[in-house]
């Protein structure tokens, strides 16, 4: 197995147009439809990084800040911020564009966690992710804190063992 890969090797972009079947009764993109697109884009990213079948383990903090109207062009962009053992954190951002009006806005950001699995669905190790740009480095550095927070919330890590989180709070209250 390749021991490490650049974060950029997993970069994935997906572009879709919002059509009538994608919308709610206000003619805006349905949240569930957007989550579906985000899950697909992020899964492709995790597959590119691991060259494995991957499953979604968790999705963090998706908020819908602005409606995306019918006819908009939605662009999703994702990459692996950091890989642990069998799991990978994927950052994804979504932009919505009204091309005729020349308008573009960032509509969502989220972190997905995928786990690479073997033919029997058992977790299997993945290559390390190596950041290169400043943005990739910043997301790599903060990934351990996010991992600990999501594992605490999932009941998989005791709060007292979340050393990175504790360090953050101790730093802020010092
Ligand atoms: C994700 C899954 C493979 C983990 O299996 P498991 O038996 O709990 O395996 P482990 O305890 O060894 O954990 C494996 C990895 O998953 C990570 N993980 C497990 N649950 C997690 C969660 N809720 N959030 C983030 N990461 C999680 C662990 O931290 C571990 O990461 P690491 O190997 O990088 O340290 C298993 O729970 C699963 O198959 N879930 C269903 C996935 C699915 O069907 N998704 C689609 C939903 S419709």
Automatic annotation (TrEMBL):
<comment type="similarity">
    <text>Belongs to the acyl coenzyme A hydrolase family.</text>
</comment>
<feature type="domain" description="HotDog ACOT-type">
    <location>
        <begin position="8"/>
        <end position="120"/>
    </location>
</feature>
<protein>
    <submittedName>
        <fullName>Acyl-CoA thioesterase</fullName>
    </submittedName>
</protein>
<dbReference type="InterPro" id="IPR029069">
    <property type="entry name" value="HotDog_dom_sf"/>
</dbReference>
<dbReference type="Pfam" id="PF03061">
    <property type="entry name" value="4HBT"/>
</dbReference>
<keyword id="KW-0378">Hydrolase</keyword>
<dbReference type="InterPro" id="IPR033120">
    <property type="entry name" value="HOTDOG_ACOT"/>
</dbReference>
<dbReference type="InterPro" id="IPR040170">
    <property type="entry name" value="Cytosol_ACT"/>
</dbReference>
<dbReference type="InterPro" id="IPR006683">
    <property type="entry name" value="Thioestr_dom"/>
</dbReference>
């Amino acid at each position: 197995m390749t021991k490490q890969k650049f974060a950029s090797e997993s970069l994935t972009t997906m572009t879709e147009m919002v059509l009538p079947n994608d919308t709610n009764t206000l003619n805006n993109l349905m949240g569930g439809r957007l989550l579906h697109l985000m899950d697909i884009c992020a899964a492709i990213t995790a597959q590119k990084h691991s060259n494995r079948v991957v499953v979604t383990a968790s999705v963090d903090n998706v908020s819908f800040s602005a409606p995306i109207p019918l006819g908009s062009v939605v662009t999703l962009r994702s990459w692996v911020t950091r890989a642990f053992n069998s799991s990978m954190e994927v950052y994804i951002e979504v932009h919505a564009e009204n091309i005729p009006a020349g308008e573009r806005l960032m509509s969502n950001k989220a972190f997905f966690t995928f786990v690479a699995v073997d033919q029997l669905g058992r977790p299997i190790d993945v290559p390390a992710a190596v950041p290169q740009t400043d943005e990739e480095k910043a997301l790599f550095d903060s990934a351990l804190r996010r991992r600990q927070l999501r594992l605490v919330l999932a009941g998989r890590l005791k709060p007292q063992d979340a050393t990175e989180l504790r360090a953050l709070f101790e730093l802020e209250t010092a």
